[in-house]
Design goal:
The protein has a single domain, classed as P-loop containing nucleotide triphosphate hydrolases (Rossmann fold), CATH 3.40.50.300. It is 37% helix and 25% strand. It is built from 10 helices and 10 strands. It has a 6-stranded mixed sheet, sandwiched between helices. A hairpin with a 2-residue loop joins strand 1 and strand 2. It starts with 10 loop residues before the first strand and ends with a helix. Bound molecules: adenosine-5'-triphosphate (ATP). This is ABC-2 type transport system ATP-binding protein. One of its GO terms (molecular function) is ATP hydrolysis activity.
């Protein structure tokens, strides 16, 4: 695959002051961020921090109470179809239709996305994720780890410029998780895909993400590269940072000006 010519600082996805309330409680509280072309941004936070709510707003599944969302410079609400054609999504918690064979499911999605030469594309991606042997299996009978990889094939089918991955390595054994992380990073680098990535696995985050946002009670409490964040928190690993934020709601200092440049 040859890489398209790109501006590495082009903003692909942007949230401005995004707030989502449920019964008066703010699941997201003036949440703002930018995701650039070719960047992998990790969205982290304890259970209930607001990650799924953010993903749902970005996918148009939940309307924000206030704030703005733009993708490819277009408002999400009024350009949903155009934006979705250039994007894709995979979640450990959403399933493809269970009664279809794997190749049938992937063929249906390839058709929906208008993928040229779909057979070849599906075969290439299945090989990359080491699931070529699953084509004739009933989707609903796959193990969680197998389904996750089929979902990832679906997510790469339309060569998305923007990809939202919700816990892509949940339920994978350490060997497969390692392979999946490497495949995601390889395809992401080759295609300069912008990825928003959630995970509770800090190894994932350290290996895959260029930049990280920590959410706590719907607010950003910390943002930077994994290395910057660990040094600001005087921690050796992101897991310690995570625990400090989750238990104490610790808000790390803003990066110093020269660090942010
Ligand atoms: N439909 C809803 N109705 C009421 N409250 C909701 C709804 N969806 C989310 N919430 C609340 O909003 C807050 C954020 O939830 P969200 O699911 O976004 O967290 P999360 O960071 O994805 O957590 P987890 O890691 O457990 O998946 C929680 O307090 C949750 O109870």
């Amino acid at each position: 695959m040859s890489a398209p010519a790109t501006d590495s600082r082009e903003v692909i996805l942007e949230a401005r002051e995004l707030t989502r309330e449920f019964d008066g409680v703010k699941a997201l509280d003036r949440f703002s961020f930018q995701l650039h072309r070719g960047e992998v941004l990790g969205l982290l936070g304890a259970n209930g921090a607001g990650k799924t709510t953010a993903m749902n707003c970005l996918l148009g599944l939940t309307l924000p109470t206030s704030g703005e969302l733009n993708a490819f410079g277009l408002p999400l609400q009024s350009h949903r179809i155009q934006i979705l054609q250039r994007s894709n999504f995979s979640s450990a918690y959403t399933a493809l239709p269970g009664n279809l064979l794997v190749w049938q499911n992937l063929s249906v999605f390839a058709r929906i996305y208008g993928v040229p030469n779909p057979k070849k594309k599906i075969a290439e991606l299945m090989e990359l994720l080491e699931i070529s042997h699953l084509g004739k299996r009933v989707t609903g009978q796959l193990s969680a780890g197998e389904s996750t990889r089929v979902n990832l094939v679906k997510a790469f089918l339309n060569d998305p410029e923007l990809l939202m991955l919700d816990e892509p390595t949940a339920s994978l054994d350490p060997d497969i998780a390692d392979k999946v992380r490497k495949v995601i990073r390889k395809v992401q680098r080759e295609r300069h895909i912008a990825i928003l990535y959630t995970s509770h696995n800090m190894r994932d985050i350290e290996e895959v993400c260029d930049r990280v946002i920590f959410l706590h009670k719907g607010k950003i409490v910390c943002e930077g590269t994994p290395t910057e964040i660990m040094s600001r928190s005087s921690s050796n690993n992101l897991e310690d940072v995570f625990i400090k934020i989750a238990r104490d709601g610790e808000i790390l200092d803003e990066p110093k000006k020269e660090e942010a440049l």
